[in-house]
Amino acid sequence: MKKKLLIAGGGYADIPLVLAAQKLGFYVITSGNNPLDMAHEYSDETCLADFSNNELMLQVAISLKIDAICPCANDFSAISCAYVAERMNLPGHDSYLLAQKIHHKDSYREFALKHSIPSPNAMGFIDPIKAVDNLKLFQFPVMVKPVDLTGGKGILKASSELEAKEAIKIAFEMSKTKRIVIEDFIEGTRHGFSAFIVDGKVAFNFLDNEHYFLNQYMVSAASTPSIVSSNVIAKLISYSEQIVHLMKLKDGIFHVQFILKDEQPIIIEICRRPPGDLYLNLVKLATSVDYSSYIIKAFTGGDCSELNQRNNEGFYSRHCIMADKAGTIDTVSIDTTVKSNIVKQYLWWHKGDEITEPLTHKLGIVFLKFNSLDEMLTKTNDMQNLIKVKVK
Question: Which domain of life is it from (predicted)?
Answer without folding.
Answer: Bacteria
